[in-house]
Amino acid sequence: MKWTANPFALPVLLIILQLFCKGKLKYIVWIFCRYLKLFTFLPLAEVERLMEQQRENPSKHLAHKRLAAEVTKLVHGKEGLESAKRCTNALYHGSVQALEQMSDEELQELFREAPFRELFLEPGTTVIDACRNVRAIPDGPRGYQMISDGAVWINHKREDKPQQVLIPKLHILSNGLTLLRVGKKNFYIIKWLSL
């Protein structure tokens, strides 16, 4: 599925709503109630029930999440909402299952700046081989040291053994992809061509 717009590009109002999460509870509830009534087709009884749940447990941000979901569904449709949920789980909750369910296009959209490489999986391919093949680490002892120091994450799990052979289902997901991260923000997506 190709996106014509970023699934996370919700209206500016929703971004501003995140700022209200730090404000006074009665104002937050009033704002969410108002926006749920204005921007969704939810029945008023459902809106009132959400607001009551929000008052009882504000840390769960139920109204905020529902508003974001309803607006996303209006803008991108049901498939877009499901894709946005998978992307959110993969990105913010470190869900490997969500990564496995994502298509190549969804991963490329989610990690827009990340290089996407297709590599042949040869028997005995190690963590350091994969990192060097996508140019994620420098050649020589510095790259080896980066992995040993824990700067490399594969599918949301820290990898600190450079000579570790890549293991299917752990390093290579069932969809043939690997999400590689070096440091905090440097992502690489690897599509393995033969498993």
TrEMBL record:
The keyword Ligase applies. The keyword RNA-binding applies. Gene3D superfamilies: RNA-binding S4 domain, Tyrosyl-Transfer RNA Synthetase. InterPro entries: aa-tRNA-synth_Ic (IPR002305), Pept_C14_p20 (IPR001309), S4_RNA-bd_sf (IPR036986), Tyr-tRNA-ligase_bac-type (IPR024088). It comes from the Eukaryota. One of its GO terms (molecular function) is ligase activity. Pfam families: tRNA-synt_1b (PF00579). Residues 51-135 form the Caspase family p20 domain. Keywords: Aminoacyl-tRNA synthetase, ATP-binding, Ligase, Nucleotide-binding, Protein biosynthesis, RNA-binding. This is Tyrosine--tRNA ligase, mitochondrial. Belongs to the class-I aminoacyl-tRNA synthetase family.
